[in-house]
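Reviewers of the previous submission asked for a worked example of the structure-prediction workflow described in the proposal, so we include one complete record here. The input consisted solely of the amino acid sequence. No template or homolog information was supplied to the procedure at any stage.
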Amino acid sequence: MEKLQSALKKARKQRDRSAPVPQPSASAKPLIGGAMQKRPDINAWEDIPLVELNTADLVKNRVLTAGSATQYSASFDLLRTKIQLQMEKNGWRRLAITSPSKSSGKTTVCANIAFALSRQNSKSTLVYEFDMRRPSVAKVFGLEPKHSTADFLNGHVSFAEQALRIGPSVAVSCNPGPLPSPSDLFLNPKTLQRLNAAEAEFEPDIVMFDLPPLYAGDDATAFFPNVDCVLLIAESENCTLKQIDLAEREIAEHTNFLGVVLNKCRYPEENEGYSYNQSYA
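From that input alone, the workflow returned the following structure tokens.
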């Protein structure tokens, strides 16, 4: 772990000497003055169906942050707090989560962060499943959506009709099945318009996007310009330093790189369920 941290820091220092830190795109900046604002309109949120989740199924799917804080959720609570502080500091609202390759556990990490955020009653969160070729958010959360995220983005249904609430102020937009060509949807200007409209209506503090793996196609790269920052999930023992460095370079060309989560660690540090190295742009 220490060797990985040292090598990443060295690579970043070399890049920083020649490349400026990218700024979030104008379209991705918060719509209402800052990343953390007033509470959302309760009436608008109540239009989104509230679902009752099965705790046993969540635990089976490695979602350990649902309900009250425990020793098992401590690592994700710390990660949540670091993410929030950095996003508040920079006035960021949109966070994308991706990985260099498949099966890195990015959706599981996304779900745990979402539930960790749900325990903060003063904050609100929207979660979008944009990994549409291999959707898994519904399975991990234990949801049964009637409509897909694509149905909302194409204007067939409203966000309140398509999304489901997993708590008073956390709404999840996910998919009942795969979509063959999502990159075309991500590049459509109307997609950004509808995302902006949903943010204006529900006023979330954080908007999370579960993106596809970076090298599984062009879907993630197509959407990077629309977010403020990206968190990279790397699978321990299977993801190489070169893959992490190349992924960081790719992300930094389009938006801000938030950090790396080293997931599936066999030998985690004491009192840590997940080890992670946060290195903020």
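The first strand starts at residue 94 and ends at 98. We consider this example representative of the routine output the project will generate in years two and three.
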